[in-house]
Amino acid sequence: MKLLVDERLLRPIRPTRSFKVLSYPSGMTVSTHTLKMVSTLLRRHRRERATRWRRLTPGRQALLVVAHLRTGDTYAQLACGFKVGTSTVYRYLREAIDLLAAMAPTLEQAMQVAARKAFVIIDGTLLRIDRVGMASGYDRGFYSGKHKCHGLNVQVIADPVGRLVWISPPLPGARHDMGAAREHGIIDALTEYAIPAAGDTAYQGAGPTVAVPQRRRRLDPDTGRYRPLSVNQKAVNAAHARRRGPGERVNAELKTWKVLRKIRSSPNQAAALIAAVQTLMIANT
Predict the structure, then answer these.
(1) φ, ψ dihedrals at 162, nearest 5°
(2) Last residue of some domain: 56, 81, 102?
């Protein structure tokens, strides 16, 4: 069930002699299940810690967290909208994100789920970032030559109908999908559990369980041109692309969480943010 939440999130403008702080209502679409899940988690955490009175109730804090993840609003915007300080917003967000990240499944748990599927789809995607150190060429590891921007590489595993199974921790965006999958242990896990998987040409040579499309043939030494694929090979590639389609839908759904469209926090803190979104995505499937 989807619920349209109309929350007065204030967009502050720097006050000067000529300008005033203006506000307007902002709407976002969230599921009631997500709000109840997050608020219950926060309420249980407060009860365990026996914390004193807080500015926001667990339900309001849950709305604050979902608003940040869904709309990507800054701390200053959320502070004005919920009438609290920016430091309070930071503490509330870090508390909830860490709790949600701790609930994210491990690779072993994901493989146990994947073993019950007919096959899985593996694909890599890039999450853009805008905060990375430039000194001594540190930013080069995060620059993706394919996408022409800085970002983080994450590996996504989906089931045949496009439901999320697992998202890997992030790696610098310059990493190739195949190298990232091996570093996370995905290829070895698929082989160990004998799980059929479908991937693109980036996973060429990933093992007997990972099916990839037919690659274009090498240059013909006689004509100096690439040998075209046969009709049967093109038909195989078309069928393979249809199998991988739901995996692309999961990548698109991942980026509907606007906080991940361009991560403004430090890349070192992005792992908890991605894991928290993963927990909410799996909870809604």
Answers:
(1) 90, 25
(2) 102
Residue type, 227: R
Q: In 211-244, which positions are buried (b, 16+ CB within 10 angstroms) versus exposed (e)?
A: bbbeeeeeeeeeeeeeeebeeeeeeebeebeeeb
Tokens standing for 276?
């928290």
What sections of 185-264 are H helices per DSSP? 186-193, 231-254
Yes or no: say if 252 and 124 are a contact pair by the CB < 8 Å rule.
Answer: no
Cα–Cα nearest to 167, from 132, 119, 120, 118: 120
The residue range of the domain holding 86 is: 2-102
Angle at 102 between CA 99 and CA 103, to 5 degrees: 95
Say how far apart CA 195 and CA 104 lie, in whole Å: 21
Is 90 exceeded by the pLDDT of residue 125? yes
Return d(Cα 280, Cα 282) in angstroms, integer. 6
Q: What is the chain's percent helix, strand, coil content, to nearest 5? A: 50, 15, 35
**Within its chain, how far is the Cα of 89 from the centroid?**
22
Residues 73 and 181 in one domain: no
- Mean pLDDT computed over every residue of the chain: 88
**pLDDT tens digits along 149-194:** 999 999 999 999 999 999 999 999 999 999 999 999 999 999 999 9
Look up the pTM and report it: 0.86
